[in-house]
Amino acid sequence: MRKKILIASSAFYPENSPRSFRATELAKELVRQGHHVTVITLDRGEVTRTFCKAHGIDLKYLPKLLLKPVRIPNGRLSIFFRALNRMLLLLLEYPDLELAFRYKSALRSKRGYDLLLSFAVPYPVHWGVAWAQGKKKKIAKVWVADCGDPYMGDLSDSFKKMFYFKYVEQFTFRRADHIAIPIETARAAYYEEFHPKMQIIPQGLDFDEFTKGLPVFTPNKTITFGYAGSFIMGKRDPRMFLDYLLTQKIDYRFVIFTNAPALVADYAARSEGKVVIRPYIPRQELIHTLAAMDFLVNFENSTVTQAPSKLIDYYLTGRPVLSIPSNRLNKAEIDQFLNRDFTARVPMQGYEQYRIQNVSVSFLNLMNKTN
């Protein structure tokens, strides 16, 4: 039976982020299955309108946001503005807090949906939905709050959330019917009272679409390997690996796709061209580019409550994966990979669960599940 589904996500196509991929792929698949899907997101102009029209998605834009990120100038004042930016983020969740008000306003008149899906980060998206989703006058019969990363239990940031946001999180999740998390170990990062509401639903991707035309692999003359994603000092930290890599006398090429190069820029500068930093590229292009490399590198999170979604993309490339913990280095394994011995590759099993067809069914099944 055709369902009426509403998706609230500040991240959406063509934004290059895990939350955007999650919301976009799910919207496409739900429409493909015959459901009516409405997406409420930030205004990204004609490119998103064209995309949604091509895929049969009903698109609604939020009004333009008024709050802007703190601009950090060069020079001596940069320290002050960085501190101001951090303080506003910690105290007020600035500038994303505005999303709570925008979503509350956008959802205020919405009614009659079978399923409401909201996506975080940022968490003010959930807050706005909770604010609008009354106990009696509900927007949808079932609301699922999808949490890619925890909020109050986030261990990847150097600073803990302010204590008063605890009450915002509790208010939000008490109104949600279900809370979707990507991995079982993430459950520990949430308040115990919400554990019964939690459902494990991993990232999803249309395997056929993203692997269409994938080239047949040919070994590179110079051993070439890559990484795609962000870095977190002390949490998802590449420095020990790069320190060791720069001692190697062999010819190699390590290509890093990231929009946060601060931790690795110095290594690239000292590598004599062996370590190359590139900005993010569209996901399908990235998968095809990585598929031409001899192997790929994964930097593990130091916390078990979060797991990188990039392993799904790595899986689709068909290339061996070397996994590097942030707090120790297995030099023997690195040497093996540099010599094209991939015996220690990460086992890629159970990845069928990440097919978007299976993920969408998991969300739809929540309409018939009570806590």
Question: Which segments are poorly predicted (pLDDT under 50) over 5 or more consecutive residues?
Answer: none
> CA-to-CA gap between the ends?
23 Å
Q: What would the principal axes of the Cα set say about the shape?
A: globular
The string of secondary-structure elements, in order, is: EHEHEHHEHEHEEHEHEHEHEHEHH
- Number of helical elements: 13
Number of domains: 2
Do you know the CATH topology of the largest domain? Rossmann fold
Give the spatial strand order of the biggest sheet: 3-2-1-4-5-6-7
Global Rg: 22 Å
Average pLDDT metric: 91
The CATH C-level name of the largest domain is Alpha Beta
Which structural class is indicated by helix and strand composition? alpha/beta
Q: Identify the CATH architecture of the largest domain.
A: 3-Layer(aba) Sandwich
Domain Glycosyltransferase subfamily 4-like N-terminal: 23-208
EC number: 2.4.-.-
Organism: Chryseosolibacter histidini
Keywords: Glycosyltransferase, Transferase
